[in-house]
Amino acid sequence: MDKSLRYISISHITASVTQRSHYQFSNEQISSFVNVLRKEFNDISGLMLLATCNRTELYFESVNTSANLIRDFLLTFKGHQSSSIGKTLFKLSDDTETTVNHLLQVSSGLESSVLGDAEIIHQIKKAHQFTIAHHLQGSLLERALQAAFKCHKRISNETHFRDGTTSLAYKSLKIIKDSYEKAALKSMKMLFVGAGDIVKQLFKYNSKFNFKNIYITNRTEQRAKDLSKDYHCHVFDWNNLLENKLEDFDVIISGISNSENLIKKVPQHKQKVMLIDLSVQGSIDRALANEKHITYYDLDAIAEDLKEVKEQRFLAIDEVNKIIAHELSEYCKWLHEAPLRELLAEYKIKVAKKVNTYFEADKEEEKITAVTNEVMRKLMSKPETFMSSLKMDNVISEQVTKYCIENLK
Question: What is the DSSP string of 141-153?
């Protein structure tokens, strides 16, 4: 039985922020989960776990292990094995072509909460690096990822699908700028909670907004210090955050994982405080949205606010779909030619062994390689010769003679 490339996915399309938070992975948790998974299902030969604020997806290639089994394993691993609702939150497939199509849709930004968001390709590349580092590429998965990277490049170069910046981090900073008077922006004190990708994006995009008085805090203090040096900001003590001593801040943006309701109170020392929660688990208590002096945004609210950009990008979707269809077709062509490639590889070994008999193998490796390659070209131009050992011998003899004569000149 041949291997298939399969996938399971839970995302903003199938589940709310709260629902998908149950299946989120921190960087530290990914390695342990993958190790347990491989021990449980030893026929998995290629694997990639994509964990972002909007989706958790597992791509894997196997002979017998189905997507249903992996989904149920994940439910159990996360403590939801008896949840019938949990099962309905996942999209999945055991068909290679369907899986590759899904990956191309995701990597292109067609399934992002912000249509065309380019951040997803960087997240896929990061997941791919983990796969490579742990020797989990697999031929089907690796080819699919290369198709995704090529597809992304073509969409960027050939369409207007990614015109403008539309990341959640960028939009968060834009909301802040649009919500305060210029005079207030100059003296504004801002806190970034966490030191992961989303916070790094906040610093990256701040070059466009130039907010000056920024503090950063993180449970691992050294990571906060490293970012503070890179981006010339201040470090805020983590213990003060745990105690919710936050009265000095005008804006708090949290992108930290695995810290549900970390921020539960914000003292009313200011007329206006803005809270932006970009974490899947909800690190800022939603009840704070009811406070009169607080303006609150979560992931879904930020994404909703980007609908106008989304509508503009709809115009380029047909072009994007054509590129995806072409790259999927190229993948399928490669997939269907796999048996022929295996046959040719086996046949080339046989040809090389016969060619060896005409030369001294330990001294004339270059000659053997040259004649073998030429014989294979001749055989491929006349497929009927593959069926006859005698005809193959004749072709080899002819090419050896030809090679020797040409190299005597």
Answer: HHHHHHHHHHHHH
- Determine the Cα–Cα distance for residues 118 and 114; give it in Å rounded to an integer: 9
SS (HEC) of 26-70:
CHHHHHHHHHHHHHHCCCCCEEEEEECCCEEEEEEEECCCCHHHH
Q: What's the pLDDT at 17?
A: 87
Residues, the chain: 409
| Contact between 144 and 68 (Cβ < 8 Å) | no
Alpha-helical segments (H) within 135-257: 139-158, 168-179, 182-187, 197-209, 221-231, 238-242
Task: Show the low-confidence residues of the chain (pLDDT under 50).
Answer: none
Tell me the pairing of strands 294-298 and 273-277.
parallel
Please give the C-alpha separations between residue 265 and each of 197, 243, 247, 269, in angstroms, as whole numbers: 25, 9, 10, 12
Distance separating alpha carbons of residues 116 and 141, to the nearest angstrom? 23
Contact 36, 42 (CB under 8 A): no
Q: Say how many CA atoms lie within 13 Å of 326 toward its Cβ.
A: 11
pLDDT value for 361:
62
Q: For residue 383, give every residue at least 6 positions away whose Cβ sits within 8 Å of its Cβ, in sequence order, or none.
A: none
Query: pTM above 0.85?
Result: no
The phi, psi pair for 111, rounded to 5°, reads -110, 10
pLDDT of 311-327, one tens digit each?
778 889 999 999 999 99
303 touches 168 (CB < 8 A): yes
- Determine the pLDDT at residue 388: 65
At residue 405, the pLDDT reads 78
